[in-house]
Design goal:
Layout: E1 2-6, H1 10-22, E2 26-30, H2 33-42, E3 49-52, H3 61-71, E4 77-81, H4 86-95, E5 99-102, H5 107-130, E6 134-137, E7 140-143, E8 148-151, E9 154-157, H6 160-171, E10 176-178, H7 179-185, H8 195-209, E11 219-222, E12 226-229
Length: 244
């Protein structure tokens, strides 16, 4: 397995490389965003996981992640940062980060998260190779193998987490799903994900799948609980759920 560590503090980067190599991983180090993007572009084979500091010189980790996601919606990105505010976490998830850890960190927890991210990516790749299935509803086509959602003439690239959340909604068509259940089943009880973060992911999905995100018909809110997804909403648009 191949890991890219994007970290400008040499002592931390060396420590991460040492511990990941002890686990049998191949590790590349980038001390800034420009180097990280070039390593990602030329990597063969591609990286399985990217560990990304957010406080980098010249180009922030947020900018690096946004640029990565323009060409790669699949590779898991774990933010490892000293930033602890909830606004920082929300911004990181909005940029496409899959998991978020704060410094100082527990090495066993970091190693566990990396193993889980890599294993999940391997499962997704196996699923993609085994099936060419496309999911269609309304005027929408979702290609899970390509991390791509097409709504009419508009094409959107899905991040790993956006795809997992959308897949979960589709698999539970018509079921009321609480935020707690989504956190447990989609985010695996990550302590870094909040109700606000889940709501932000839902808003992004609505912008992709709804004709009018302010009056959704597929992805509805259930007041005080969570969300309910309909592949084929009632033609009359009536619902007891709130669109908020």
């Amino acid at each position: 397995m191949r890991i890219l560590v994007v970290e400008d503090e040499e002592s931390i980067a060396r420590g991460l490389r040492f511990n990941f190599e002890r686990e049998g991983y191949q590790v590349d180090i980038a001390g800034n965003g420009t180097t990280a993007l070039e390593l990602h572009r030329t990597a063969a084979p591609r990286f399985d996981v990217i560990i990304l500091d957010l406080m980098l010189p010249e180009m922030s980790g947020y900018e690096v992640c946004r640029e990565l996601r323009r060409s790669d919606a699949e590779t898991p990105v774990l933010a490892l940062t000293a930033r602890t505010l909830s606004e920082d976490k929300v911004q990181a998830f909005d940029c496409g980060v899959d998991q978020y850890m704060t410094k100082p960190f527990s090495l066993p927890e970091l190693l566990s998260r990396v193993r889980n991210l890599a294993a999940r990516r391997g499962q997704q790749q196996s699923h993609s190779r085994a099936s060419e299935e496309l999911i269609r509803f309304g005027n929408i086509t979702v290609d899970f193998g390509r991390f791509e959602l097409r709504h009419g003439e508009d094409v959107h690239q899905l991040t790993t987490r956006e795809q997992e959340l959308l897949r979960y909604f589709i698999q539970h068509d018509g079921t009321v799903l609480s935020r707690v259940r989504l956190q447990t089943e989609v985010w695996k009880d990550s302590a870094e994900i909040s109700s606000r973060s889940i709501d932000n992911f839902v808003m992004r999905l609505r912008r992709m799948i709804e004709l009018d995100p302010s009056a959704p018909r597929h992805l509805l809110s259930v007041r005080g609980t969570g969300y309910r997804f309909f592949r084929d909403p009632a033609d009359d648009g009536s619902s007891s759920e709130s669109p908020i």
